[in-house]
Amino acid sequence: MKDLQSFGRPARILIIAGSDSSGGAGVQADIKTVTMFGGHAMTAITAITAQNSRGVHGVHPVPTQMVLDQIEACVSDIGVDAVKIGMIGSAETAQAVAEMLTGLGESISIVLDPVMVASSGSVLADEATIAAFGSLMDVATLVTPNLPELAALGGEDAILRHGTALLVKGGHAEGAEITDRLIAADGTETRWTDARIDTPHDHGTGCTLASAIAAGLGEGRALPDAIARARAFVRASLRAAPDFVADNGPMGQQAVKVEEL
Question: How far, in whole angstroms, is CA 161 from its chain's centroid?
């Protein structure tokens, strides 16, 4: 694995995702997260949303070719150490992005957060787009579904058949504790269990987790280590939420000191 400190430069993280106008999720949460980890965040915007804590009020998908042009502009100039994929916009874009990322080579880690529904409950991926996630899973290093997303993608075996590792996020389960499970492509399993944090301000948890993992992988960290640090960052960000609104508010990524995790 790469040791980027020996090169004297930050990890270059390409974020392929939608924009959240409220700054709670999407590329805004991704950029904040990668920045707090000391990485260099680049973006390929797949959709523009009019969104806040109350819901998604409008979605404008970015044309597929423009998404590809953004990726090419970043990769051909700055370069990339890891990729994070969130809201993909359309089935056509999913297929085209998967084909383009295949050309990056196996040394580039790709984290796929299969975004389907916003935390407010608004739908962000139609059935055709969800069906096209298979092409992205074929190139992904890690897929990070929550429990409803896992069910929509056909369950653990269906995802693992794509040759990717799987992080099953347990936040949607009932109970005072949350268990996340990493299942490697070879079937090896690692578990993390923590007490549930009682807060209404969890907008952007999935985006933040996936970007934090990508930042770790881009630095050359092993997958379990990158996940453990990312989980700690999400938990600290939940505790640091600024409490702007009554419910579903943004997290406090900007208040977290990564070196103290």
Answer: 21
pLDDT single digits (tens) 121-158: 667 788 898 989 999 999 999 999 999 999 999 999 99
Tell whether the torsion through CA atoms of 102, 92, 76 and 5 is positive or negative.
negative
State the pTM of this model. Answer: 0.94
Q: How many other β-carbons are positioned within 10 Å of the β-carbon of residue 235?
A: 18
- Structural contact between residues 251 and 204, judged by C-beta atoms closer than 8 angstroms: yes
Sheet bearing 177-183, strands edge to edge: 55-61, 40-52, 12-20, 82-85, 109-112, 142-143, 165-168, 177-183, 189-195
Helical residues (DSSP H) of the chain, grouped into ranges: 26-36, 64-77, 91-102, 127-139, 147-152, 156-160, 205-219, 223-239
- The count of residues in the chain is 261
